[in-house]
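Worked problem 6 (solution included).
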Amino acid sequence: MIASRHTSSLANGLLLTDLYQLNMVQAYLDAGMTDRAVFEFFVRDLPGPRNFMLAAGLEQALAQLERVRLNEDELAWLRDSGRFNSTFMDYMADLRFDGEVHAMPEGTAVFPNEPVLRVSAPLPVAQLLETRLINLLHTSMVVASKAARMTLAAPGKNLVDFGLRRAHGAEAGLLGARASYIAGFNGTATVPAQPLWGIPITGTMAHSFIEAHTDEEQAFLDFARSRPNETVFLIDTYDTEAAAKKVVRIAPTLAAEGIKVHGVRIDSGDLNALSHSVRRILDDGGLSDVPIIASGGLDEWRLRDCVDDEVPIDGFGIGTALTTSEDAPALNCAYKLQEYQGHLKRKLSEGKETWPGRKQVWRDYDASGVMQADILGFEDEDMPGTPLLQPVMRDGAVLEGTTDLEAARERAARELAALPPRLQELEPADPYPVRVSERLQAEAERLAHALRGDDGAS
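Solution. The predicted structure is:
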């Protein structure tokens, strides 16, 4: 049983990891293997109907690296566990991250086998980071990539994240708010996103507020007078069209009190039919400037249908499908050793082979700015195109400008616009070409022969 004095630190600190990472630190130390190692995080393939992924989560990953240290409670638990020797304990007591990190900036379009993040640090330290780095990058990339599809499906629409309550944990919900903002969402209902990152937050009202009243019209009036700057009325608790007529009826009263109706929200039913009828009621009642917001079980497919059918909905609140990435909730991603002591390293497991060494990705565009192809090669190769991995951390310190959220949002908008048209569609398309350099292919093959002990090894 863990002593209560340890629980808070263990739930939030560096020991929030897999046991095998600690086992590996001990084993590396016992073997005297503490030289520099290079690990890379990448996605092996695209899930479901995805045609691309978006890089996200870098800010949280770098913050984790800056906090690489154990406090007294964590050290006490390690000591009390009896699992580790004094060499391990001394090493962990002095643990810091003083390495280098290169990464694709947040908002960059990513394709299979391209390194999104590269860590160079002493082998035990770089190994220890694996679980948490994957956890942070995976969560943000899954949601950012789902949100990007929604942004492409409903261009120009006001998209808001409503997903915290259905997210797989509070941290995932909060990171989802940030990831969806990078991908082009306009705001979130998740409150800490504003003080933490300046993301606009928005909220309407609950069905329970209306149900608690004996009269729906009075509920609207009470809410408007309580929240005069947030008067978006939820109108589908009983009868959507009747509620819209009540909004029209109370609008002059509220206007006389200096309160403007900022919108109505429909959370159920046939959105196509209801939005048309509500739009007519509002327009006929002199509220043509009042937007209609829809929510309730929406995903990118339903967004596209609404846009294609030209339904008069101005904005969408999207929850479960976004924060859980319902159709593709996980990435086949990895964080693998690519170099140790200056020597190339490669995994040869069937279906999980890796490209060895420190790598770079170069992206080529046509004259109109549309992505044409990527080249994956060794970092020191000279290839045409724009290099995507940039230095983001040196000697354990984050480089200035690395985690600018608005820059990431602007970058994502440019990247989505630069995707070949076929990749902007929701349906799976012919894969985007990622070519592997001849030198990387040759070195990978040479290394494979050597590791397998083939007679042809050179």
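Discussion: The mean pLDDT is 95.
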